[in-house]
Amino acid sequence: MTTLSQTKELFRRADAVCFDVDSTVIKEEGIDELAKFCGVGDAVTEMTRKAMGGSMTFKRALTERLSIIRCSREQVNKLITDHPPQLTPGIRELVDRLHERNIKVFLISGGFRCIVEHVATQLNIPLHHVYANRLKFYFNGEYAGFDESQPTAESGGKGKVISMLKEQHGFKTVVMVGDGATDLEACPPASAFIGFGGNVVRPQVKERCSWYVTSFGELLKELEKI
After folding, report:
1. Which of 22, 32, 179, 183 is catalytic?
2. Which pLDDT belongs to residue 65?
3. 137 shares a domain with 49
4. Residues 55 and 150 both lie in one domain
5. Is the dihedral of CA 165, 49, 218, 127 positive or negative?
6. Which of 32, 64, 156, 182 has the greatest CB tally within 10 Å of its CB?
7. The pTM is what?
8. Which helix (H) or strand (E) holds 224?
């Protein structure tokens, strides 16, 4: 594991920074909000907790949660319109500063592309820099499952995306920022991991990373040192 000073140095000279979305870039867990909206909030929140804690495989947790929710396309669209994802304070400024420094920004999420694209647009992140799961619907709009071929549908999927980005773009230094177990396990191949506890603190993540922050202001401050 990199030391605190090494992690800060890698962040300052990163070629790319990859952010988790749920409970990191946005305040909520998208799947929990979708479940609440569809009237099955409690059952799904408990399963999300288990998934984030690493006590069941991500794919199994995703499959089981979605089989409870069974959301229609109309419900997903209405959720985004009526309850748009709430950006975490400071993320807009941080992404703007990274872009100014010509550091590429990616969103890598175990959540749903339709929600994550909405977030990317608010942050001026190109949609081809978004990696997330795709919901599938029948022609009549009813839930038909999710695209299991996406790397983000698997445990270890975020690491696969980072390996792919390094290969495709020739990035030497890629930093992952996130709140959960699936973010922590993306390092390696990520050069460094920064734990984020501004929305929810997950003890097993906090204990295992050398740099843990509770606000994006701390990252912004680090970039000012260059």
Report:
1. 22
2. 85
3. no
4. no
5. positive
6. 182
7. 0.87
8. helix 216-224
Are β-strands 143-146 and 104-112 bridged in parallel, bridged antiparallel, or unpaired?
unpaired
Q: Is there a single domain that holds both residue 22 and residue 111?
A: yes
CATH of the domain at 74: 1.10.150
Question: Do 70 and 95 belong together in one domain?
Answer: no
User: pLDDT confidence of 209, banded at 50, 70, 90?
Assistant: confident
Residues 3-29: tens digit of each pLDDT = 888 888 888 888 999 999 988 999 888
Instruction: Judge whether 20 counts as a catalytic residue.
Output: yes
Instruction: Please give the tally of structural domains in the chain.
Output: 2
- Catalytic-labelled residue, pool 15, 20, 147, 183: 20
Say if residues 145 and 136 touch (Cβ distance below 8 Å).
yes
Single out the residue of 201, 203, 197 nearest to residue 218, CA to CA: 197
Query: Are residues 126 and 183 located together in one domain of the fold?
Result: yes
Supply the range of the domain harboring residue 47. 32-82
The pLDDT > 90 percentage for the chain reads: 23
Amino acid at 27: K
pLDDT for res 52: 59
Hunting for tokens 């709140």 — which residue is that?
179
Q: Which CATH number goes with the domain that contains 125? A: 3.40.50.1000
